[in-house]
């Protein structure tokens, strides 16, 4: 019997108006010949929280960079709100990216760091002040406006990095393993806060992670990828708890949570097996 989520996924022509991101048969081969992605089809709808989960090297970051417009597909195409990225730069359709490193300017205070993208857009100071204050409040850093990055813990630096992204009021937030370097307790706390922020805003999130637990806790859907070449092998909606249900600490130890972890763990085992077989296959060719 197929695992849940192993059926059809990809373009759903009837629902394009609601599609924030769509990857249609996207391939990526880097200049050194590495085939990072093969025929990826993926649609992401408005308001979804989608995690990309998969073994190292399966192309999660490559796909996210293409979603951010930082890399071009070698074949196929990506659409943002049904269009090319160059034509969607309207104020109500914006995207922001958060990386694994907080990438804060060390010589600037928290408030100056968070204000930077707005200054680059030449936003009037009265408006940027409101946005910066709102963003810092959302991430719980409103009492640390004047602190410098070196005075903040790793978790707080990441909060500042998220605030910098949120200050642009993005519709689409792309996050590349933002909490991977944090201890588990801090990571769980940031996951909970991120989920709350997402649930309160009109925000679509694509989140790269290695962690099954993090993916299940955060997501409305988890896309599992395999390597050599990178591709989507499963697309699993996380429907528990039911509509409006809270994902609190109790959810983390619930039978539903464990059930989803088991499904994703089985897919990852499959992805890793294919990875090893692919490796053996590659080796046989050398
Ligand atoms: N700029 C590049 N030039 C050549 N090869 C690259 C480049 N960036 C990534 N790759 C290769 O493409 C493949 C996919 O890499 P990518 O970083 O997207 O995977 P990932 O799933 O995000 O991995 P990880 O979980 O380890 O971050 C890997 O084999 C990687 O070595």
From TrEMBL:
Pfam families attached to this UniProt entry: ABC_tran
Transmembrane feature ranges: none
Classification via Gene3D superfamilies: P-loop containing nucleotide triphosphate hydrolases (3.40.50.300)
Keywords attached to this entry: ATP-binding, Cell membrane, Membrane, Nucleotide-binding, Transport
Molecular-function annotations in GO: ATP binding
InterPro entries for the chain: AAA+_ATPase, ABC_transporter-like_ATP-bd, ABC_transporter-like_CS, ABC_transporter_ATP-bind, P-loop_NTPase
ABC transporter domain mapped to chain residues: 21-252
Assigned protein family: Belongs to the ABC transporter superfamily.
The protein, known as: ABC transporter ATP-binding protein
